[in-house]
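Reviewer comment 2.1 asked that we show a complete input and output for one of the modelled complexes. We chose the zinc ion case, as it is the one discussed in the main text.
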Amino acid sequence: MIGFLIVLIAGPASGSVKKCPKCAEEVKAEAQVCRFCKYEFPQDPVKSDAPEPIHIGEKITQKTVDELWEQRERVLRKKWG
Ligand SMILES: [Zn+2]
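Response of the prediction step:
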């Protein structure tokens, strides 16, 4: 409950402004250039922070799944004779 309240209070405030690394002034999060010292912020930091799409699914193709099932069936057949 307390954590939820902190998110409610701190969430919007921290999300709408960012601190300039050069002059330490707070500027709008959407700002590309600091309005105090004209520092240029790196482009699209939001995209780099976003979680990457899971690529595991791409590695396991239908072919490999079929091969795994074939191997499993062969092993089972050997066991059953
Ligand atoms: Zn600045």
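The two ends are 61 Å apart (CA to CA). We note this here for comparison with the apo prediction described in Section 3.2.
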